[in-house]
Amino acid sequence: MRSGLRAKFTRWPPKYEVIKAAKREMKVKVGNQKFEYQCAICEGWFKQKETEVDHLIACGNLHLDPAGFIERLFCSQEHLQLVCKVCHKAKTKADREAAK
Fold this sequence. Notes:
Elements: H1 2-9, H2 13-21, E1 23-30, E2 33-38, E3 45-46, E4 51-55, H3 66-73, E5 80-84, H4 85-99
Antiparallel strand pairs: 1-2, 2-3, 4-5
């Protein structure tokens, strides 16, 4: 069930608005790459495949709070941010440690 919900999130319109807001044209083009995206945490610029959309408030546990999980997963643009994969991994780890 969780993977099905996550698959639906990949097409969630606010997600694309967050990506669009963090986008700029590359100053020096590399190959076919035309755009780069700014991480909301470290403020570095990355290729799109090096970034991920992160929820400011963790979605939580589907099994313990299904309604809350779905509500937080399909949130508005204000509750999402674009981050590089390194920052996303560190933030997720910190969130999990804080939840323990």
